[in-house]
Amino acid sequence: MAHFKPIRSALPMPAGDNSQPVADSTTSSEKRPKRIACVRCRQSKLKCEGLDKGPKCIRCAKNSLVCEIDSDFKRINKRAKLEDLSEEVKQLRSIISRSQTEPGSSHDEKRSGSPPHGATTLAESTEHAVVDSPGPPNGEFTPFPNVARKVSSSRSQHAPNNTFTPSFQGSSIESPTMSIPRGHSFHIPQAATTSHQLGDLHITPQQTSSLFNVFFEDFHHFFPILKPDLSPEDYYERSPLLFWTIIAIAARSYDEEVGVYSSLRAPLDKLMWEKISVTPHSHLTIQAIVLLCVWPFSSPSMITNPSFMLISIARTACMHLGLHRPEILQDFNRVKFRVLSEHVEEAAKVWAGCFVAAESITSTEGQGPLFVSTDPTISLACGEQNIYHLPQGLRHILVIQRFLNRVNCSMAADTSTRGGGSSAYEAGTLLASLEDDLHVLQKQLEGSITDMCSIWVSGAALQLQVYYFLEPVDSPARKHGLLRAYHTAMEFISQIERANEYDKFSRSVPRYFGAMVKLAALVVMKLLFSNYSRILDIEAGKKAFNTAMSIQRAMSVENNDFPSRDSVVLTHLWAINQSNGTIRNEEPTLRLNTRHSASVLHDSLWVWRNYYAEREFNTEHLGRPPRVLPSLIQHSPVATMDTPNVNIPFDPYASTPQNSKLDHQQQQQQQQQQQQMGTMHGMQSGNMSNTTPGLMSDGMAAPPGQGNGMMDNTSPDPFDLMSSYGSYMIPEADSSGMFYPNWMWDAAFSMQN
């Protein structure tokens, strides 16, 4: 049996034991001098290699710093110091902004001279805070790589003589159309110094500076999620995608070089998808994606518009980085880094911008909400305290869109019931409660929001009230709710018309405004051509409808884009409804009522399409049915056929998805006939996309001019996956288009084709 001797050195030394360790006996007579670290090493919590009265420590000597030793020194909390300095800088900025607005003061005198106390100190302290903090190893990813250091260095480089430059973030919009007071224009901190090229597009430094000035002067105040105090070179160094996104958006209203916008479409789209394919994404990439969703390039059709997909990617990327929980940002990263207050604020701003863009897209397209109104970060950002220091304009828009999100989430819960048309649908009480909440929100925002934010409020109110279309006809609240929706639509069109007095407003507003103008025009038209017209001012409704079409044409930035096609479709819908004398004696109802607040839009598009689908004309050159779902707008008759003959009687709802009149035998005959077609020819329009709809004798909007011809040249099959799909689907204004009049989503579509 083995015996083990206990390790006595691990046990406490008994009292009276005279045995001592060797090291203690050798060092008991010699006392080492007490080491005192220098001030800088103690502040940085680093080991100081130097004695009390010796030369400089190794770290101070290496960095050429003054090595001081103070036994009474106490370490300063940098975060508290930064917060105090930030608060001091904000106070100084508010003082400077107030002094600049005083009459008789010189702008140059205010900006010249020494910087305010604390401005450069903040930059220096921020730089030290980042440099001293342990950074990630090479190749590792952090969502905000050296943001503070780059901001401070860029400001020290680009601000001549350390002149303090007040930030434009958080400034309110003083007029319905401008975020900067009239008489002043925005100027970037430093002009661009380098030429840049993307694809075949080459822009000079002068063009870059002009485009950045245009963006921050005309576009930024609609959606303030970027920093105006950075130069173009700073943006390009940090994110080329964000740099070119700013250039592309500004080119929408850039009159000096009209080809920039169209030339950027293909290369910027390629660059965006290249960045999306590489994960993880930085917050700058997410900002670029969100901006491209707010100001998207026009696509050939609604179904090829990638905005809904892109905003879903942006939301997922935010959650991947932890931007949806700024307070615990570190928990979503595998590399330790110091989370500064500016990181938290930047993360909250990106998440808030993604929320606003997502709600704008889903509500206008008739999709379910991507966010929930109970999101903790959004709830904190909407608070009166504004703990994330969001720009005031962005916070007001966030509050409004959060309410709209709650409306859509509440109403989307009963989509299946509404789709079945059950009389048990009881949304009147819920809608009335939501309208009361809207009135409370309007009172809370009253006096603090700008005219531009008032347009957002009217848009949210309109999207809430159009849900009354989905109520049963015998509901007592339906008629009053629809009449309120009518007056809200009239007011929304009037607000946009007043804001459109600024010449650059129509080309710089987000796409959401154009979609809401279209919805307002459809609501006005729907009620004017119903039995409600007896109690409505028809002439005022006609004027508002024509105003909406004029606004759509003014918002167009290129041929055959969304606004230009919308104006033509609205013209056709008016003519279609005017030719039907029976609907003026009927309730305004919808056959397609499953697309939430956008059901009015999609139902009207079905009416428009079915009218042309029932017209009799030669279809020999139209080819086989498509293999993918086409868009209603993609096969617009504006590029393929004549204006509808309003004297022909028709039933616009004859082929809606719920009430198709085609029997099975007729469907098979159509499929066989279309499958036997071997070639496909386009139909050439006249100059219909360039024709301005006039006014008919009674003040109605008239359809465009007539006349077109057939083309003999064959075109690639747009529905063949192996053909030149992309080039064909982007026609010019006078190019050919394709339209399948006998093709029904419910009748001829087959996944086997």
Describe the 3D structure:
The chain is built from 27 helices and four strands. The chain is mainly α and 753 residues long. Among the domains are: 36-87; 202-422, no CATH class; 429-623. The strands form two sheets. The chain has a two-stranded antiparallel sheet. A two-stranded antiparallel sheet has the order 3-4.
Q: Secondary-structure map with pairings?
A:
Layout: H1 22-27, H2 39-44, H3 58-62, H4 78-100, H5 107-111, H6 119-132, H7 147-158, E1 196-198, E2 201-203, H8 205-219, H9 232-238, H10 240-250, H11 259-277, H12 283-294, H13 307-321, H14 341-365, H15 376-381, H16 392-412, H17 415-420, H18 428-445, H19 451-465, H20 478-499, H21 505-508, H22 511-528, H23 538-555, H24 562-578, H25 599-613, H26 664-675, E3 681-685, E4 708-714, H27 725-728
Antiparallel strand pairs: 1-2, 3-4
Helix pairs in contact: 4-6, 6-7, 8-10, 9-10, 10-11, 10-12, 12-13, 12-14, 13-14, 14-16, 16-18, 16-19, 18-19, 19-20, 20-22, 20-23, 22-23, 22-24, 23-24, 24-25
Domain Zn(2)-C6 fungal-type: 37-69
Pfam families: Fungal_trans, Zn_clus
Subcellular location: Nucleus
